[in-house]
Amino acid sequence: MKAIFPALIGLTVAGSGAAASHALGKRTPFSLDVTIHSTGNTNVMATVTNSGDEGYNLYFKNTLLDTSAVDKVVVTVDENKVPSNGLRLVFNRYKLSPTHFLKLEPGEVRQVEFDIAETYRLQDSPHGIHEVSAEGYFLYAELNSTQTIGRIPYASNKLVLQIDQEQAAVVYEQANPDYRDRDLRKRSIIDKNHCSSSQAYTIAQGQRYVTNWAQKAANAVSTGYPPQLFNAYWKSKVYIDEIKTCYTGIANEAAGIGGDKITIACRDTGTGDSCAGEAGEDPPLAFAREYDSLMVLCPPYWDAPIIVNTCSPDQSSQVETLMHELTHFQNVCGHTCDDLAYGRAASKGLPYSDAVDNADTYALFAQDYINNCSG
């Protein structure tokens, strides 16, 4: 699939200006400087500086400022990406917690240090020379607000590190003591060792909805129908094959067709508890870990309704969350979707080149199509 960051750069330049910073789906002019430097073997320090004249409330979850075990940087060896077991956390996208935002005033600096060996399998690389860079975007809100109004892209310098792979292996095993068991685990769509019978029943019920939604969404996308809703979310038929492939993969996975690729558990199966969230932060609804094809449904997930039958207001449902998370798996969707925008308004504000890679766009288009919502 296409690279995300180059698309962001081109659209940022085209959409720069005073109005761009206060519209959903738009980007601000470049005003965040991100640099990284090595602090020893696999340890990296990232520095984020607000070099603009405007203060931001940055949504930092699933970014390089997140202290959770998420993918913070891009690590390559011989121009190939190094496998990672980084998490993709999903929260209630319609009521983002203040604990997931960082205030960044003009001139203010934030720093975070992390060990890339905790999530990247550097020990499996053919040699120790690796390149590390940080690129992506921050969703942001105005100061003292949690209503995201746009995205700020960034790109750091590139590091070339000579890594001690034996030491990296030790760090990885300490951070992932159960990884050998995960690598050997038999795939099953519902991990009944980590889900109660009632939870397994509820998941199976949700999967039936997901199959139905995804099948109907795939058919709708193929015809561009209904045009008002199609144009609101997808804007163009340029990537119609990729969109249909993703929906078809989701429908097949939820129905158990072609072999179950994803394991769904109802608690963290590792030694830590990523469902608990970081200290002082609200916990996630769920998280996806693409490396070992694992989706974990956390306690807040079960508080959401199974489905939402209305077009507004925005509200998370179990089925929408399942569909959202399944787009994060390349072996299901055909490409790995990201979280480029949350909620209806922001998702509809994306250009077609970003909509194809946005997890919420798939879930919300399907839900709105089922509910006969207008564009």
UniProtKB/TrEMBL annotation:
GO BP, one annotated term: proteolysis
The record's free-text note on cofactor binding: Binds 1 zinc ion per subunit.
Molecular-function GO terms, alphabetical: metal ion binding; metalloendopeptidase activity
Binding-site positions, Zn(2+): H324, H328, D339
Catalytic machinery residues: E325
GO cellular component term, pick one: extracellular region
Top EC category: hydrolase
Signal peptide start-end: 1-19
InterPro entries hit by this protein: Fungal_M35_metalloproteases, Lys_MEP, MetalloPept_cat_dom_sf, Peptidase_M35
Protein family membership: Belongs to the peptidase M35 family.
Protein name: deuterolysin
Organism: Cercospora zeae-maydis SCOH1-5
